[in-house]
């Protein structure tokens, strides 16, 4: 409930619509309530007295009230839709904005599947709740109160029937609403699992086909889909059971009303039209309660959704801008790690332990080590994708935490291990690195990344459209574009995380030459499993089990590091004699 209130400010810009909708609904309800009374008069006065003129007059009045009711109802629909749809669009925008500010740790906590369910399903649920609140929440209680009042004033003899039927109807509604709320929370969780599975499957469709695991994937999808179906069924069944129970209670009320009414008509204390009007009002009361219960269920259901939306919007972003940002002149690109410790989870095992090194501006730093030793994690700390648990990382002697985030990240070019490109033209992808890049700059970057040759062969060159996930490019082509995107911003610190793994030796040497010529004063971090890719580095860091096992030039490491020597010997087949 609290979380739903927290979303309330999002309705503020649409206050006018949110006020007009229920007002117009009041008009519709007033007209609906008028109908049985007019009918009662037609029967008891017009027909009973054979007064045709009276019947026609009241008939026309019925038509007019129906027409006014129609205008009220249509207006309410239009304004409630406007308010709810815009309210939902604003929440979607806010969630998207917030997730864009998320640190990698924040994103890891939610997972992509859950975030997608929140932006789609949960936002739709709160949109529905608002729409129904504006449209029906007023209608239900007004119909109910209006009908009860009219029965009290016009058919008091039959009022005892309401005194029995209404409490039973209310208990039913309360019981089923409470039950359905809990069940819908479970539905949302099952929906998360379906979305996560779908996302994973679409992203890995090629691997699935290559390993011929379609049957396995269908089986695992069926599992989560069946769970969602089962939970949906249970939740819907609760709602669907309510309707026949309520109808049964109302029908009992109708029988009781007719029975009591017949006795009173025989006694001459009641007219037939009153009984007909009472039956109509009883149905309206059920209708009013039913619609109110639907809204209540939708609102209860939306508590879970609002709660999940709140979790995203209120997430504390753990990578924060500095309170007092350092004033920085031109960044040179000297990078220093001082006693850095890092773990992915609180109280988790350290992935990096006591890392200290210094890279002078313009130096090339090679990073090598076994799989999972912490190389990628180490470079992710430089642009503050994660913050260390202890120790510090300095660029030009200033802690990266003191840099304005935008300034820090525009200083760094990052080429991740998995080349991630976006759907759109090659040009748009390159401009991701530098928005205002000229064609000449794009060409130079593409040349440095050995991407020129394949772009030139494309019919549309830089206008060539990439599909989602750049599936119409080869792995090597994706890596080259990903590198060009980083080169184009002329960063002071360039991080290449195993980004030449899918590139042939000739192209790799072109990239290395270009780095020397065009990025001579850039500090370059090259993570590679191949000694040949880092052999010329000014300094090589050997990472083993999250620790800096050794550092130095290739020659120094052959001399001093048994781990490095082992890697070198395995890759080259040459045995190295050491004085160690
Ligand atoms: N987002 C994450 N959440 C939790 N643990 C992670 C995450 N990313 C990596 N790890 C763990 O941290 C350790 C270091 O991973 P990292 O990716 O830094 O290794 P690496 O040396 O770059 O490996 P590779 O050479 O295979 O790329 C591994 O044990 C890995 O399982």
UniProtKB/TrEMBL annotation:
Entry keywords, A to Z: ATP-binding, Cell membrane, Membrane, Nucleotide-binding, Transmembrane, Transmembrane helix, Transport
Question: How is the protein disposed in the membrane?
Answer: Multi-pass membrane protein
Location of the protein in the cell? Cell membrane
Top-rank lineage group of the source organism: Bacteria
Keyword presence, Lyase = no
| Primary localisation category | membrane
Please give the InterPro entries that the UniProt record associates with this protein: AAA+_ATPase (IPR003593), ABC1_TM_dom (IPR011527), ABC1_TM_sf (IPR036640), ABC_transporter-like_ATP-bd (IPR003439), ABC_transporter-like_CS (IPR017871), P-loop_NTPase (IPR027417), Type_1_exporter (IPR039421)
> What does the entry list under GO cellular component?
plasma membrane
PROSITE patterns membership: ABC_TM1F, ABC_TRANSPORTER_1, ABC_TRANSPORTER_2
List the transmembrane segments: 54-79, 136-153, 159-176, 238-262, 268-289
Q: Which residues form the ABC transporter domain?
A: 335-570
Task: Answer yes or no on keyword Magnesium.
Answer: no
- CDD domains membership: ABC_6TM_Tm287_like
Can you name one GO molecular function term for this protein? ATP hydrolysis activity
Q: Where is the ABC transmembrane type-1 domain?
A: 19-301
Q: What's this protein's name?
A: ABC transporter ATP-binding protein
Q: What is the lineage of its organism?
A: Bacteria, Bacillati, Bacillota, Bacilli, Bacillales
């Amino acid at each position: 409930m609290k979380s739903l209130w927290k979303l309330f400010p999002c309705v503020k810009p649409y206050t006018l619509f949110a006020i007009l909708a229920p007002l117009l609904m009041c008009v519709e309800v007033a007209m609906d309530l008028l109908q049985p009374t007019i009918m009662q008069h037609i029967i008891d006065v017009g027909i009973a007295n054979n007064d045709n003129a009276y019947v026609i007059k009241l008939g026309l009045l019925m038509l007019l009230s129906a027409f006014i009711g129609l205008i009220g109802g249509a207006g309410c629909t239009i304004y409630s839709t406007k308010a709810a749809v815009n309210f939902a669009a604003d929440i979607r925008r806010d969630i998207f904005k917030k997730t864009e500010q998320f640190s990698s740790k924040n994103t890891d906590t939610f997972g992509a599947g859950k975030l997608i369910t929140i932006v789609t399903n949960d936002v739709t649920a709160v949109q529905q709740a608002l729409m129904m609140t504006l449209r029906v929440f007023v209608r239900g209680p007004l119909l109910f109160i209006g009908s009860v009042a009219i029965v009290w004033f016009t058919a008091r003899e039959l009022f005892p029937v309401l005194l029995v039927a209404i409490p039973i109807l209310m208990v039913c509604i309360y019981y089923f609403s409470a039950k359905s709320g809990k069940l819908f929370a479970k539905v949302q969780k099952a929906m998360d699992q379906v979305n996560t599975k779908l996302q994973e499957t679409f992203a890995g469709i090629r691997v699935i086909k290559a390993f011929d695991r379609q049957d396995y994937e269908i089986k695992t999808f069926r599992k989560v889909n069946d769970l969602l179906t089962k939970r949906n069924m249970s939740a819907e069944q609760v709602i669907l059971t309510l309707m026949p129970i309520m109808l049964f209670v109302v029908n009992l009320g109708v029988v009781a009303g007719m029975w009591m009414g017949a006795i009173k008509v025989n006694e001459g204390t009641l007219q037939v039209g009153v009984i007909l009007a009472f039956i109509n009002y009883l149905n309206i009361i059920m209708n009013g309660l039913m619609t109110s219960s639907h809204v209540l269920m939708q609102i209860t259901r939306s508590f879970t959704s609002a709660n999940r939306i709140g979790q995203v919007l209120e997430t504390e972003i753990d990578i924060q801008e500095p309170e007092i940002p350092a004033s920085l002149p031109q960044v040179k690109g000297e990078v220093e790690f001082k006693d850095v410790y890092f773990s992915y989870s609180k109280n988790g095992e350290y992935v990096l332990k006591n890392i200290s090194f210094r890279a002078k501006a313009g130096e090339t730093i090679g990073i090598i080590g076994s799989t999972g030793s912490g190389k990628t994690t180490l470079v992710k700390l430089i642009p503050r994708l994660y913050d260390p648990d202890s120790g510090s990382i300095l660029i030009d002697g200033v802690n990266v935490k003191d840099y304005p985030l935008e300034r820090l990240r525009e200083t760094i070019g990052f080429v991740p291990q998995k080349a991630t490109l976006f759907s759109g033209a090659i040009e748009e992808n390159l401009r991701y690195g530098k928005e205002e890049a000229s064609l000449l700059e794009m060409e130079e970057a593409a040349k440095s990344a050995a991407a020129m040759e394949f772009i030139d062969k494309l019919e549309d060159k830089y206008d060539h459209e990439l599909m989602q996930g750049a599936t119409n490019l080869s792995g090597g082509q994706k890596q080259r574009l990903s590198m060009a995107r980083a080169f184009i911003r002329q960063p002071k610190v360039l991080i290449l995380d195993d980004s030449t793994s899918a590139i042939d030796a000739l192209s790799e040497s072109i990239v290395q030459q270009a780095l020397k010529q065009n990025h001579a004063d850039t500090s370059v971090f090259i993570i590679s499993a191949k000694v040949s890719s880092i052999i010329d580095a000014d300094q090589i860091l050997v990472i083993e089990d999250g620790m800096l096992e050794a550092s130095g030039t290739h020659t120094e490491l052959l001399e001093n590091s048994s781990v490095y020597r082992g890697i070198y010997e395995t890759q080259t087949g040459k045995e190295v004699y050491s004085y160690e």
